[in-house]
Input
Amino acid sequence: MSLDLNPDHKVRRTQSGTVLSVQDLHVSFPSEAGPVRAVRGLSFDLAAGETMAIVGESGSGKSVTSLAIMGLHPDSARITGSIKLHGEELLGRSDAAMSKIRGNELAMIFQDPLSALTPVYTIGDQITETIQIHRNVSRAAATKQAVELLDLVGIPSPHLRVKSFPHEFSGGMRQRAMIALAIANDPDVIIADEPTTALDITIQAQVLDVLKKAQRETGAAVIMITHDLGVVAGVADRVTVMYAGRPVEQGTVDEIFYSPRMPYTIGLLGAVPRLDADVKEPLATLEGNPPSVVSLPPGCPFAPRCPMVQDNCLTIEPALAPTDKPLHTAACLYSSDIAAENRTYRDIFPIPAIPASPLERLPREERRSVLRLEQMQRHYPLMKGAVFRRRVGTVYAVDGIDLEIKEGETLGLVGESGCGKSTTILEVLNLKPPTGGTVVVFGKDVRDIGSGRERKTMRRDIQVVFQDPMASLDPRMPVFDIIAEPMGVHKVPKAEVERRVEELLSLVGLEPSHASRFPQQFSGGQRQRIGIARALALEPKLIVLDEPVSALDVSIQAGVINLLDELKAKMGLSYLFVAHDLAVVQHIADRVAVMYLGKIVEIGEVSEVFRHPTHPYTQALLSAIPIPDPHKERSRERILLKGDLPSPANPPSGCKFRTRCQRFATLSEGEQQPCLETMPELYVVGQDHHSACHYNRERQVV
Amino acid sequence: MSDQLGNKILMDSEVESAIEEVGSGDAQRPGDVRPTTKRLTRRRLILRRFLRNKLAVAGVGVWIFLILLALVGPMVSPWAFNDVDRRAYLKPPSQQHWFGTTQSGRDVLALTMQGLRKSLLIGLLVALISTTIAALVGSFAAYFGGWTERVALWVVDLLLVIPSFFLIAILVTGGPQGSSSWLLLVLLLAAFGWVLSARVVRSLTLSVKEREYVLAARFMGLAAPKVIIRHILPNISSLLIIDATLGIGGAVLAETTLAFFGFGVQPPDTSLGTLIAEGQRLATTFPWIFLAPATVLVIMVLSVNAIGDGLRDALDPNSQSGGKAA
Output
């Protein structure tokens, strides 16, 4: 180890063997409606250097478990069972006693590094503080170590950045700083609670890499809490699947992924869209929602959603029982049946058949164009000064893009945050002339829209579904009014509205009698269905979907994706689908456009682009997507991009991607010249496949 | 440090969502859906939720009683408020004068009812007018931005630095005298009362207007004033309701202060504020002169608060007024 992380005062008490042992952990919170039993009987042992993943949907008790281990639960919580670190009981210790352990032997990495770092202290101060609390070292020595730690986690010029404040760091850098903070005192156990959920996919790959390195350096055991099965496949040795506060399956990562024995796990695995899927199949849908952990009915908590449910499932809550594999346990009465027949999600879960759209038979050239962007630009002036405002620069949010969506077609628009995806869709939805180029909607140039009334009429045909199903529905409006609103705007007769809302609610799979409820009374997936119903109210031709599933849990997400697929086929809709999850895009889109810094760098038919990517950025994006398959995931070669997205106010000269390009670095000086001077145009590299690189070269990354 | 962090995270994490589920959990299960035969419109839904709040309903009852007292009271009362009983100066409550008499031999009950009449009108009108102006100016300024916002803020800042008390005093004394001079007072109090709330409304609107449902409404083709009235104002209604309820008390107090210096409701007319100001001086020796109008004022403000609370909860779907799942 290059770093003196293990100072002499600290004796490693366990070199190998069990570091942390949790036995029969129960956590409950008081609430108006009765105790919230957030965790019910969790047990596991964790060895040094081992990574255990806790997987589950929101509300399954993952985070509560981590807080209970850290002793950060609220005082009102009731905790029973045992949590032993190096054989010493942690439960029942005072907060002061726990403070000696926290940050020293137990460290935690939070999901949102912006709120987990104190904004008014520099990164360096926060790391030195952590070091000095637990060790008797001088401030200078601690600062020196902080610089070394920042260097270790890959922060460029750490001796300068140590004086930066958290807001001066990008999201990925902050998470690196958070990891540096966590390993500052060489902990024995690191708990990472959704450490990459808030990050872009390329940054996620970088951070996971740093986390692995940190684990190697400290030899710590890691508890990885996540909902992303792809991440689990890549980092975990063992997996615990939680449902309604209970562990429902435990085993090694291979056992869980290749031979799951609990229907919930099987369903989860079947519900994830996979980048390595060869043919497009509908996803497994888990009907319903996770139960409330306040008043659980007797029996298996998964029974109401389980297609295999039998009578005795409703009376007996199964405990974790051994399966056909050693050390692999599952909480299902019928796990032996599943093992015997080796059932997969296709055998257990209903897979809806998606009807083919009549439009799909028509060749693409013969279909009508719904949306066409030609060299569309959106530049924002950068202003300075309070009284005399002057222009000091330009933000090149979208810098000349061409794309076209035909009837009945789905175009996926992908890229990191800040690449101009959102600006593009806002530009389309605004129906106002962009700063440059043209937007043509249903054959009409938006420049030619004369009156507000004409614009309003055009809005009928173009609707939007937003990312956050909570924020996109007015919380003060009953669902009926929400869905009826667009029809009110466009003067649909009252009697017709009443009938249509009912029809729409059943179309998106909701109970029409729920129309007088408020959005709060629905779960995330149901709310997103309400949003979709609202978008469909006027029978539009084009729906803009802005990350419609990224805020949803995996099992819920699959249902919404299947619904979108089905609606598209039934109603001949076109989608402009913006997403950062390439696996979802591959599943739902016909064509895909990859954006980087306001430019499209690769565009074409989905399978063509994803199977034969030629642009280095597309290759890097694809290789960063984790695949929920441990063998594939571990043997994959990952292209790690350097650094973060440059600012769109100050883009690099020539090819915008060259500052982070993995291919650029391998070129000779003469070959680099074109990249430095000109932004490459979109070259034809295949049938309906264009790529903007001077050195287009195919590379298999999935 | 990690303790702070932990607690912060804990607040936003699953604990909360787990607890939140409590409210909706039962309702979501398709099994125990109560059969709703008829869909309720938004207004009826809010009314139903409001009626569940017993305190608010009681507030409405008290408020109606006060209005009746102010309207019908003077008609049935044997004494008019400007009658002088020469046999009873500063007498405690008795058969003839239920609430006693003042120094000048006027009936306290009749005075209180007359005062209540003016104060109800002044309080209600000032609160309604100033909250409406505040809501409209604040939200329109924030929603449109640019020049609209700048001009609105100039006006707001200008009104903030003007010494309103003197201006009102001068205008009221210089304005038309007579029985309707209180109307001018109402307008002036409202004209200076909205500015601070308008600033708060503006800042709240700035955050609400970025929400996706506002964007969604805009992309639906909804006209800007409708977006503001239908989506933005209901979502800041908690503030508006509190502002209006506090405004009623505030207006009555402002009128009292003005009356104290002789600029309020002009005699022979009277208001609760004038009565309290008069009674205050004799409060320790002849408490009934002070007690009657003060009690009525307290009851009035309390019932308004109860109504306001009820209304806020009825409008806020997060509150407990959704009733209990059977």
User: Anything to note?
Assistant: The first helix of chain B runs from residue 2 to 12. Chain B touches chain A through 54 residues (CB under 8 Å).
